[in-house]
User: What shape does this take?
Amino acid sequence: MAKSQDNSFCPVPWCSTKAPHKDDADVKALLETAQIPGELARWATNALTELRDSIERDSAERQIFALITRSRQVEELYSRAVYILLLATDDELPHMLSGRMPNGFSFHYDRVNESIFGGRGILEKDSKAMEMLHHGAHVSFWDAEYGRFRDNQRVARLQRPLETYQQNVL
Assistant: This one.
């Protein structure tokens, strides 16, 4: 993959786009939407509300596997929205809206944590919460075990990170 100084189309390091992001019709539409005050924030709020409601149902119904698979979506969407709305430069915005790699959680979380959370982000303090979010994005049989054995020791070990997550995120 090309480094940013080798890619004249995008300033984001490691982006391998072969054309300017702004040339993509979907990115153009998103950039137009971003010009409407508060519109992207409304989109993020609506999506986060749906995710919260879904996670609360999963928790009440003890659908642990379903809860784990959605947990990262909340944190990632929130962090991405904060980054786009408050921190992204005009040059970075088309890349962020394109969805092209790199565009994952670690791409924006560190800057949001440093600039907005003052280094106090929950994921910097609680490695189990970060592990849970990682597993939520990359589901495996390790995660499926939580869904199958809802009352075992692994679920009990998950209780503290889940409570921390619910107190700080939901």
User: Anything to note?
Assistant: The radius of gyration is 18 Å. The chain is about 65% helix and 0% strand. The longest helix spans residues 64-87.
